[in-house]
Every structure is written in C-alpha cells, then in structure tokens.
Design brief:
mainly beta; OB fold (Dihydrolipoamide Acetyltransferase, E2P); 5-stranded antiparallel sheet; two-stranded antiparallel sheet; 9 strands; globular
Length: 108
C-alpha cells in the first residue's frame, strides 16, 4: 500500500510532445523527446517506446508525464521526467487525456 501523502508528492501533468529524435548509443530502441509542460517549461525525456510508436504518431500528441521524477542519464542524455504508459507484455499504450487540455495541466 502507498500512503496518501506519498501519492500526493507525485507531480503528474499533461504534456505535449514537440520534438522526437532517436537516442543514439542506447542499448534499447529509445526516443529523445522534448515535451512542453506549460508553466514547468520544456522537458527532455527519454522513452523506450520506439518499437510501438513512430515519430509521426508521437509528434503533437498530448501525454501524461511524471514531472518531478529525479533526472537520470541514459546513454549520455539527461531524462527529466517520465511519460506514463501501460504494458500488457505484448503492447505498450501511452496514457493520454480524452479531451484537449493545456500543457502543464495537473492530473488529480
């Protein structure tokens, strides 16, 4: 079980993908993304979803992002958050809002 206060410490926001590039040198197929988080600014985020989404499918898409995750270096690239997705062992599906929201909108 997770305490409510632990959950409340997560800063989950809606972001808009504004740039998608391949992350060269990574052990697995990974994209380098620039995601607009509104008032929080533009974040660089690495995402291991290259086998499931093309660059064209991602560009301009609104996604759910964990914005206050500790930065991590992946193949020399500093990832500043995490996109949320579901994985059933065969497929990966990004979590996305069902209506248009402004980048930076809080997920509650």
């Amino acid at each position: 079980m997770v305490a409510f206060n632990d959950f409340a410490n997560l800063d989950v926001r809606i972001g808009k993908i504004i740039e998608v590039e391949d992350l060269e040198g990574a052990r697995k197929p990974i994209y380098r993304l620039k995601i607009d988080l509104g008032e929080l600014g533009i974040r660089n985020i690495a995402a291991g979803i290259k086998d499931f989404y093309t660059k064209e499918q991602l560009l301009g898409k609104s996604v759910v992002v964990l914005a206050n995750l500790e930065p991590k270096s992946i193949a020399g690239f500093i990832s500043e958050g995490m996109m949320l997705a579901a994985d059933d062992g065969t497929n990966v599906c990004l979590l996305v809002p069902d209506k248009e929201l402004q980048p930076g909108s809080k997920v509650r």
